[in-house]
Amino acid sequence: MAPPDAIEAALRWRDEATAAPQEALREAERLLSGAAPDGELRVLARHIAALAAVELGRVDEARRHVRLGLSTAQRGDRPKRAAQLQLTLAWIELERGATGASWANLAAAEPHLPAEDRPRATCLRGLLHCQRGHHRDARLRLTSALVHLDGDRRWKANALLGRGLANLYTNRLEEAEQDLADAERIFIDGGRGARAAGCRHNRGCVAFRAGDLPRALRLFEQAVAAGLDVTANPEALVDRGEALAAAGLTRHARAVMEQASQRLAATGRQGRLAETRLALAECALRDGDPAAAAEAASAARRLFRGQKRPAWAALASAIVWQAKLRSGQSTRYALSAARRAANACEDFGWRAAAAELRLTAGRTAQLAGLTSVARKLLGRCADLRELAVPPQLRALGWLAEALLAEQEGNTARLLRACRAGLKAVDGQAAGMAAFEMRVHALGLGDELGAVAVRAALRIGDPQLVLRWTERSRASALHRRALRPPSDPRLNASLVRLRGAVLDAQRAADPKRAMNTVAELEEQVRHRAMLVEGRTDRLRAPAEIGEISAELGDAALLSLFSESGRLFAVSIVDGEAALHVLGPEAAAESQAVRLRHLLARQACGVDSRAAPMFEHGVALAAAELQAQLLAPVLPALKRGRELVVVPTGRLHLMPWAALPACRGNPVTVSPSIRCWLGGAERARAANPAGGKAWIAGPRLDHAEREVRTLHHRGGGRLLTGSGARTDRVLSALDGARVAHLAAHGHFRDDQPLLSCLDLADGPLYAHDLDGLRRSPTTVVLSACDVGKSAISRGDQLSGLTATLLDRGTATVIASVVPVPDERTVEVMLTLHDGLDAGLPPAAALAEAQARHGETGFICIGYGGG
Q1: Can you tell me the distance from the alpha carbon of 290 to that of 442, in angstroms, rounded to the nearest whole number?
Q2: Where would I find the CHAT domain in this sequence (predicted)?
Q3: Is the pTM of this model over 0.85?
Q4: Which residue of 123, 203, 267, 655 is 20 to 30 Å from 397, comparing CA positions?
Q5: In angstroms, how far is the first alpha carbon of the chain from the final one?
């Protein structure tokens, strides 16, 4: 028999094994090497080893220790120790996701447990109810257990953690946050940093369900920094992947989830693979791949059913039917199955998935002519608009209400619903300092705006149409971050990325070097999502009087599309008119053709082919002018300035190539609100503000260009090795005019990684996001950097959009290549005009007309 002191010491190690698992394992090995074959110390040593192994994520090893300990306890007729081990085995099976085995072990252990362990068994029973989706029973069991766990701090924290999760899944989010925060404090006080970090991670899940995506991502990041080992807890990767997918980073999300799948398999947690497969299905759905989503969700549903987890099976069914409806299924059977899946989802607390499925099913029913079915589905979804739910869900409810009103022909009710829905969407975006996250979050605003625009078109009132096109257009730019995001880790990641790009240019192994660059790019993109802050007040859409006052003699043309047709609202001499311009595809096709031909000309063509290219350019330009500019052509022929708000791929149009625009000032703005905001910033600019002239490396004529401009206009000059990122950003901050002659690279896949080449590597759009006061006027004489990525709602992303977001009034940049030698002359003439007092759009028009160029556009505000 082991001495009492040795038994007491072993019991202390058992109680502390989860706080110091590595040390506990070493102690268990020491005890096992010297304990008697059937001794109590051997049983306790196995118990210590099992608890430490499960804490380290090695559940298969933990099971082995428990089974060996059970065998020893049973041979030695120690029912109390055997029951305690079986309770631990129930915990381990729960960790593995094997709920059936966990229930069986718990039932076998309970009759033999000592009184002090029975509240732990009650706690574990509550956790099992939570795992199976019986969240009401889980809350009751765990609340009951907590009454008896005051003296057992570790299990009290476990019970609070479990109840917090049950509250999370039943949408009691404030209670969930409180329970998880209390559990985190207890774990910290007990020296269990890893468990505390797990609570911090779960608080991120609460924030995610509450619709606070920035906070969720920050909490996930903080949990890892606090000691959450994602290799031992791959489930955390799944949660992070879901948040990344919701933020629009679907490629990164999929990579994270695949990593989670591999780790779950490696750590013996195949039971949790179902959740990963379901998360991948949701990711595929966001990526527009419903076939892959249906396949993955169906596989996950089979696994959940096999594990007797009806709540998760209900969620998987909702994703299956969401995917099938998006694939085109619209039969009564499909809609009925979707309705049942949504009801089951809601019963288990998956409110968002239920709402999204009802909305999709309702729209499908409307398109199929099943109006009564649509009314029922949309009505259930519309109920959300009055509930205390996250803003995104309220917006979904208002969208459903708008679709119901559209079906019933009630325009006033429809517009009220769209107005309320956009308010909910804007409220969510107010807390997002990260520009890319705002762009993604405002996608639902485009759907609400589209419903309202359809109603306005049916009425035929041009002012109403203009008001509603403006409400949802380029809305991310209308909410500027109140202060520049500041994140030392993001800045450090950008520095590492710049260095990696330079290293890749001279690397012996280019493939490996580019893989490093790609990894660092993902780090930068992820860190940019974590910046904290709020945005400024949303500017209301302007009325015709305000717009006309700012226009003066200029004409305005606001383009938009609906159901594949292109429309425009024009304002000339204070009069608004609505126009139908024909197929959107025809205009976009000609615009692409025009840009292609101009790019080929810029690269140089054989003299024999030159007339063919000139004819092609003239033909495309004439057709675009006939389709797009007819409403304002009389005004342009009188030499009036044009302000154009494009849509879709027309944002990339070289407008100066159109005959009526040659020599005429043309301003291209993402929205009228952006144009008016630029006017305010231009007027508020300090006329005595400085100028910055910057030349990047490896660009012919760049240094001559900026040295000449500096000689004429004074200011700060940065060339050669002096044109480093930190110095350039310092020169840009607060400048009145900034001119950058540097190679540019537009990234359609990751627009905020579009960049300009400087001496120490690329200057990214992310770098510009840190400016306190962006220059009033920025001229980018590099090729193609005037481009932007265009997403739903004409949301723009790229270098120019970032500058406008940070407060620049005017950006002059190219949307097609311009030969270096001709760029110099255009730029010199442009700045001569600016120095002579010409507004930016007029100075650019004169410069391009004099030198026969058409590739530059004036973006934002071009007036003076």
Answers
A1: 22
A2: 621-849
A3: no
A4: 203
A5: 95
